[in-house]
Amino acid sequence: MRIFEETESQVRSYCRGWPALFVRSKDSHVFDEHGKSYLDFFAGAGALNYGHNHPVLKNALLEYLTDDHIVHSLDMYTEAKARFLETFRDVILRPRGLEYRVQFPGPTGTNAVEAALKIARKVTGRTTIARFTNSFHGMTLGSLAVTGNGRKRHGAGVPLEHTLTLPFDQYLDGSTPDLLWLRRLIEDSSSGVGLPAAVIVETVQGEGGINVASPEWLRALSLLCSEHDMLLIVDDVQMGCGRTGPFFSFEESGVVPDVVCLSKSLSGYGLPFAVTLLRPELDIWEPGEHNGTFRGYNPAFVTATAALDEFWRDGILRDTVDRNGSFVDSELRLIADEHADAGATVRGRGLARAVAFEDANIAGAVCRNAFERGLLLETAGSDDEVVKLLPPLTTHREDLDAGLSIVADSVRAARKELA
Fold it and tell me: Does residue 94 share a domain with residue 238?
């Protein structure tokens, strides 16, 4: 580990909680240099929904590279891009009645968000973006401006402006209609708040603590945006690609956003890949007005196409996520019941699940104990008070059962050491 201590920046973080040298991975397991196996309930922060080194995706990538196909192409036309666009249109968009234009903004989720914010301002001519408490949208300055986490915002070093903060669903006391605040602000000419260009929202806040917006709340938000000519941007970077069950996390609500941001598991293989989806009438970019050197990464096109073909031409994966999500939820509720005196509560949808504690120290101790027992977990929430579970969607039931058993043991051990 000496090379990392001597050479790598202090900004590194995940490795501090998981001090192991990882060398190999397969399905829902990663292995360190000593051959120890760890169950992965982190899945690359949601970038590995189909597990590690899925053979269908791996073989498609190896064949593409072996035959010397195009790897780097900026936004030139390539066969790999054409195949991805055709498959995405036919497998994802058309069956859902969606007619989005697909923009390739750059390789990561924050690139997709930056493009969404820019096009919203360009289309409307307005500058303010409304965002929600406990939100997370990325680490570049525009995305960071609409992110709630105070520690991450402080790292910007400059003012993060032109945003309006709103309470997320159930952020207040649970009885107050949260969207009334936004409606009053934009309809009262003396509120001092101008009409936002757009509202950006996560249907399930991942980094914010697995906070789930209800379908009713999302529909009300969509209606409010429509009534006042504000664009609705859904950030589906972490919760898209099946994490909550359907391909898009907003499908259950019936909402059709104006703009959608996708990344993380879009490539299916952990390769960097992001898209910004726009309603056709919003696509008013001038050629090259928003660009980037790595906005068309062909190996990611290849694995993304293979993933769509393998997992989304039928409804089997969605059914699996729904079924396994219910199983995880029921097991976590048993854990929460056992630790009700610590204020343990369960949150989540699909295979984005969590246990929250009143004392943030418990969550951190749970994750440390889980690592020692061979399970990768991370914390989330405003004070890291939430133990977040993001297992690959393809995780076998016996692995889910084994991982949840480790979670239960780790909570007991954490509470004992903190007593």
Answer: yes
| Distances in whole angstroms, Cα of residue 5 to Cα of each of 15, 99, 286 | 11, 49, 46
Which tens digits make up the pLDDT trace of 47-106? 999 999 999 999 999 999 999 999 999 999 999 999 999 999 999 999 999 999 999 999
Residues 276 and 167 in one domain: yes
CATH code at 307?
3.40.640.10
Query: Does residue 217 have a pLDDT over 80?
Result: yes
Residue 168 pairs in a beta bridge with: none
Tokens representing 358?
A: 């009143």
The residue from 311, 337, 371 where one domain ends is 311
Q: Where are the alpha helices (DSSP H) in 374-396?
A: none
Residue 37 has phi, psi (to 5 degrees) of -95, 135
pLDDT digits (tens, 9 = 90+) for 107-160: 999 999 999 999 999 999 999 999 999 999 999 999 999 999 888 999 999 999
Q: In angstroms, how far is the first alpha carbon of the chain from the final one?
A: 33
pTM here is: 0.97
Token pair recorded at residue 181:
């605040």
Asked whether residue 98 falls in the same domain as residue 211, the answer is yes
- Does position 176 have pLDDT exceeding 60, yes or no? no
Domain boundaries, position 164: 58-311
**Residue 413 scores a pLDDT above 70:** yes
Question: For position 174, what pLDDT does the model report?
Answer: 66
How would you write 165-229 as a 3-class SS string?
EECCCCCCCCCCCCHHHHHHHHHCCCCCCCCCCEEEECCEECCCCCEECCHHHHHHHHHHHHHCC
Domain count, the chain: 2
What does the alpha-carbon distance between residue 372 and residue 410 come to, in Å, rounded to a whole number?
Answer: 9
Q: Are 204 and 348 in contact (CB under 8 A)?
A: yes
CATH code of the domain in which 377 resides: 3.90.1150.10
Other Cβ atoms less than 10 A from the Cβ of 391: the count is 29
Do 271 and 136 share a domain, yes or no? yes
Cβ(336)–Cβ(344) under 8 Å?
yes
pLDDT of residue 178: 73
User: Rounded to whole angstroms, how far apart are CA atoms 140 and 205?
Assistant: 18
Are 131 and 179 in the same domain? yes
